[in-house]
Design goal:
Blueprint (H helix, E strand, L loop, with lengths): L10 E5 L28 H14 L3 E5 L9 H9 L6 E6 L4 H10 L4 E5 L5 H8 L4 H14 L2 E8 L7 H6 L4 H19 L1 H4 L2 E7 L14 H11 L4 E3 L9 E4 L7 E4 L12 E4 L4 E3 L8 E2 L1 H4 L6 H17 L19 H4 L2
Parallel strand pairs: 1-2, 1-10, 2-3, 3-4, 4-5, 5-6, 6-9
Antiparallel strand pairs: 7-8, 8-9, 10-11, 11-12
Helix pairs in contact: 1-11, 2-3, 3-5
């Protein structure tokens, strides 16, 4: 499929649940969210029907997301069934990694192509402060298990110095210059620690600028360029890596002696809309052309219309998917938060 700006759209990110076993401060409100009723969320059979229609329309790559997708039972079998759909060339998964090690054998048996693991720090105290859970050891073990199995593995860390502010300073809402500098320095040192994961293992460590969606609007957006500058100081031999690493817009670098690579996804300071190749589907079957705008296109109504036979459902969904693709805007507006029309939390949209 080509959108009206001649971009090839061949990548669909599918949220299978709005549930998550973490409570990350920039994603989930401290008092929680109103979760969708299970009958509102697409069944696996419905998701497979969507994937068939999407494949016929030109989608080739599927990313399974949440919430946290591994909290939903039977997810490995879903991966396997999608992977068998004609036209689909790869099914990947994004996860917080807590359940990944124990579920990895089943996921691999069902032809999982690659995995993205969300991990913002290697400091166990900070990890618990950010996520609300003491589970860093489990995540690290999952990374090791993926590497040992030969699965293509990426680690994604969100960039925001707000995560490194002292709690008492956050409560006071009064920042001195020195406190801001301390938070930035903690962030930069944290990035260097995370980068160490790619030194001895073929893991891509990627730094993602905080997007002003949901609770992310309340966090400072730290530029990927600032992190890259610090890494260049530490590793002056760093150079651009033009190899293809996956489906997304990350810009990669290699460091001599490292087995893995370094990546940046800089939605704000390195706008990449002209290369956008994706659409998203929420767990309730809403196709979103762009993350920062509220417009969406309903597939669930088609899937659950008992007057439609299978062939007509597929045809109708293809029509809706194409309509969503043609509605993709030329650019997002993250750099102008006042223009963002999406008001839902990320956990409700899908990662």
């Amino acid at each position: 499929m080509l959108d009206k700006y001649n971009r090839k759209i061949d990548y669909l990110r599918i949220s299978v649940t709005d549930r998550c076993n973490l409570r990350c401060s920039y994603c989930m409100p401290s008092n929680g969210v109103q979760f969708m009723k299970m009958e509102e969320i697409l069944t696996y059979e419905e998701i497979i029907q969507v994937c068939r229609a999407a494949a016929l329309s030109g989608i080739r790559k599927i990313k399974i997301t949440g919430g946290e997708p591994l909290v939903r039972k039977g997810i490995a079998e879903l991966v396997g069934k999608i992977a068998k759909i004609p036209g689909i060339t790869g099914v990947t998964l994004t996860t917080n990694g807590i359940y990944l090690e124990e579920m990895l054998p089943e996921l691999l048996k069902n032809h999982l192509s690659a995995v993205n693991i969300s991990l913002d720090t290697l400091d166990p105290v900070l990890y618990k402060n950010i996520t609300g859970v003491d589970a860093l050891t489990k995540v690290f073990q999952s990374i090791q298990a993926c590497v040992a199995a030969g699965l293509k593995t990426k680690v994604n860390a969100v960039l925001s110095e707000s995560l490194f502010e002292e709690k008492h300073v956050i409560a006071e809402k009064s920042w001195g210059v020195s406190a801001k500098k301390q938070a930035k320095e903690r962030l930069l040192n944290n990035c260097l620690d995370l980068l160490g994961l790619s030194r001895t293992s073929p893991v891509d460590v990627r730094f993602i600028e905080m997007m002003p969606i949901g609770l992310g609007k309340d966090y400072t957006i730290t530029s990927g360029d600032e992190v890259l500058h610090r890494i260049r100081q530490e590793y002056p031999g760093i150079r651009a890596d033009y190899r293809k690493h996956g489906n997304g817009p990350a810009i990669y670098y290699t460091i001599p002696g490292f087995k893995g690579s370094l990546g940046f996804i800089s939605a704000i300071h390195g706008k990449f809309c002209e290369q956008c190749n994706r659409i998203r589907m929420t767990s309730t079957g809403q196709i979103k052309p762009c993350l920062c705008y509220s417009n969406s296109y309903d597939l669930r109504a088609v899937l659950r219309n008992q007057d439609f036979d299978e062939a007509y459902k597929i045809a109708k969904m293809r029509e809706i998917i194409n309509k969503a693709v043609q509605a993709k805007p030329q650019n997002h507006c993250f750099e102008h938060p006042e223009e963002i029309s999406e008001v839902k939390k990320m956990v409700m949209i899908g990662g």
